[in-house]
UniProtKB/TrEMBL annotation:
This is Uncharacterized protein. GO terms for molecular function: catalytic activity, acting on RNA; pseudouridine synthase activity; RNA binding. It comes from Bacteriovorax stolpii. Pfam families: PseudoU_synth_2. Belongs to the pseudouridine synthase RluA family. CDD domains: PseudoU_synth_RluA_like. One of its GO terms (biological process) is enzyme-directed rRNA pseudouridine synthesis.
Length: 286
């Protein structure tokens, strides 16, 4: 789908589109490179000419006010946090203005004033991120001061990160598991897992089998995440021989969704406990 544009009428002649956009929209060279081709940026225009500019450029950094996804369930709210349940197959934040099925567009429809937190970044006040495929508890911090403090100390203030997932096969493993992980920064590439010391990052989680469905040959597993690396649960369980149901990227079988859900997040902030739970919906439906 072609990005939407809007017409901009010039009040005076310009010698260079690039110089005009830099001075009028305070746009950097990198931002211009993302939205326009070099020949267009080099063009000159006379007074009263019309420039067709992408809305993604004009509204760069803004959150689309039209939410078009499934209803998002609000879990709790207090003076510090706005907590909600992210749906599966949904982005937590957009990368461009025209994206409207994301959690921040939902927040803009319900509580637009919250988007002033961490104003210059697309993830705003989201304390952490969940993968597109993952559902569950999301915590949004309601002030800049607290957001900065918690982001800088997240590994110490996050006391529990508990996930539920369905895995292929009958899993009899239990206890803690430590492995090493490749950086996983390159999009479209699997995170590689090996024994400790092989790769640059160390990751740890604890496993507990909750229920085995013999007819499906699948096990419901509770995962306590000790670290928080990209694709950690998905990659680590696949390495252990139990890929997640629906996670074809890491060797799981096709299903209605990727069955991974952030069940519980517990924080300790200034001596006070904050615990949030979200029971997954339609989590047994294969």
């Amino acid at each position: 789908m072609e990005p939407k544009t809007t017409d901009y009428c010039l009040l005076q002649s310009i010698d260079s589109v690039e110089d005009f956009l830099k001075s009028t929209f305070h746009a950097s060279s990198n931002k211009l490179k993302k939205h326009f081709k070099k020949p267009f940026l080099a063009r000159s225009f006379k007074e009263k000419a019309t420039l067709s500019l992408p809305l993604n450029f004009i509204n760069d950094g803004e959150i689309n006010p039209h939410y078009e996804g499934e209803e998002i369930r609000i879990i709790a709210e207090d003076e510090n946090f706005f907590v909600f349940n992210k749906n599966p197959n949904q982005f937590v934040h957009p990368l461009t203005y025209d994206e409207s099925d994301n959690c921040l567009s939902f927040i803009r429809t319900k509580r637009p004033e919250l988007l002033s937190v961490n104003r210059t970044q697309y993830d705003r006040g989201l304390l952490y991120r969940l993968d597109y495929e993952t559902s569950g508890v999301m915590i949004y911090v309601k002030s800049d001061e607290l957001y900065k403090k918690l982001r800088e100390s997240f590994s110490t203030i996050a006391k529990a990160k508990i996930y539920w997932c369905w895995v292929e096969g009958e899993m009899k493993l239990s206890g803690s598991f430590k492995h090493s992980f490749s950086s996983g920064e390159e999009k479209g590439k699997r995170v590689l897992v090996a024994e400790a010391g092989v790769h640059s990052q160390e990751g740890e989680l604890a496993l507990k089998a909750l229920r085995y469905e013999k007819s499906l040959n699948r096990t419901l597993v509770e995962v306590t995440l000790k670290t928080g690396l990209r694709h950690q649960i998905r990659a680590q369980l696949a390495y252990l021989g139990y890929p997640l149901v629906g996670d074809k990227f890491y060797g799981g079988k096709e299903a209605k969704r990727l069955y991974l859900h952030a069940q519980t997040y517990r924080l300790e902030v200034d001596g006070k406990d904050y615990s949030y739970d979200s029971t997954p919906l339609n989590f047994d439906g294969f």
